[in-house]
Design a protein that fits this description.
The protein has two domains: 59 residues, no CATH class; 219 residues, Fumarylacetoacetase-like, C-terminal domain (Fumarylacetoacetate hydrolase, domain 2, Alpha-Beta Complex). The chain has seven helices and 18 strands. Helices cover 15% and strands 31% of the residues. It is globular. The strands form three sheets. Strands 1, 2, 3, 4, 5, 6, 7, 10, 11, 13 and 16 form an eleven-stranded mixed beta sheet that branches. It has a five-stranded mixed beta sheet with strand order 8-18-17-14-15, with no helix packed on it. By secondary structure, the chain is of the alpha+beta class.
């Protein structure tokens, strides 16, 4: 199953377009994409019961898709979760997942412009996990059972703000408007497996203006998705609709010599096998000097 947010309405991806959930369910499920996670098991059962051949399918334009998770109550992010990224950043491998948050106001969809608030804005392609069942003290062996699905994300970061001292401002530097793009679809684990993909070993990459700058596989995570869910749920409950950005592989701009950052006009494409891609372009802040 693939679900999406088409101009604010919950839809099911279908061959040739998308099915409007509120219409197809005769109002059993509403149009709000965020509300479906509170009824995820019921919704999944309903989707399995559908005769997809009889459903009306509407065309989908990529630029009308929004974040499939528009208003999570909790948005977690994991730092230094790939060995090569920890090495390029000059850190030893963490013994415990470094956890921070991105604020909800940073969320945007899979395409469109993102405003550059400064001169040191960086990219970080990431697998994003969305919770479908309340998870509290979950064992890693059962962790995937608590996941609604996965999507593509970018943990965009303004490095000057992020590293402003004396204590780093990770959450603030990573939460400017548009700095948490997600999409284009939320894909369930069974859908990935049906396509011959291992949810613990998904290839991910991103490019700037057509140049490949990051590539890797989630199999190289220091802390796997199940390990992250087990760790976080041991501290506090993860609720349906909560989001976890799971970390990025090597290739960020700040680690290059010299450092490379996003500029007005740059086009950033972020891809994960079996899920899809994000495509964004960057614009200067209104009234700013040419960057």
């Amino acid at each position: 199953m693939r679900i999406g947010n088409l101009d604010g309405r919950l839809v099911l991806a279908a061959r040739g377009g998308a099915v409007d959930v509120e219409s197809a369910s005769h109002g059993r499920f509403g149009s709000d994409p965020q509300e479906v996670f509170a009824r995820w098991d019921e919704f999944s059962e309903w989707v399995r019961s559908l005769n997809h051949a009889t459903l009306p399918v509407h065309p989908v334009e990529f630029d009308t898709l929004r974040s499939p998770v528009p208003r999570p109550d909790q948005l977690f992010a994991i730092g230094l979760n790939y060995r090569d990224h920890a090495a390029e950043s000059g850190f030893e491998l963490p013994q415990f997942p470094p956890v921070f948050t991105k604020f909800r106001g940073a969320i945007t969809g899979p395409s469109g412009p993102i405003t550059l608030p400064g001169h040191t804005v960086d990219w970080e392609v990431e697998l994003v996990v969305v919770i479908g069942r309340t998870a509290r003290d979950v064992d890693s062996a059962q962790a995937w059972d608590h996941v609604a699905g996965v999507t593509v994300g970018q943990d965009i970061s303004e490095r000057t703000v992020q590293t402003a001292g004396p204590a780093p401002q990770f959450s603030l530097g990573k939460s400017f408007p548009g700095f948490a793009p997600m999409g284009p679809w939320l894909v369930t684990v069974d859908e990935l497996r049906a396509g011959g993909l291992d949810p613990d070993a998904l290839k991910l990459s991103c490019s700037v203006n057509g140049e490949l700058v990051q590539h890797g596989t989630t199999a190289d995570m220091i802390f796997s998705v199940p390990a992250l869910i087990a760790t976080v749920s041991a501290v506090l409950p993860l609720e349906p609709g909560d989001v976890i950005f799971t970390g990025t592989p090597a290739g960020i701009g700040a680690a290059r010599t010299p450092p490379r950052y996003l500029r007005p006009g740059d086009r950033l494409v972020s891809t994960i096998d079996g899920i899809g891609e994000l495509c964004h372009h960057f614009v200067p802040a209104p009234g700013s000097q040419e960057m």
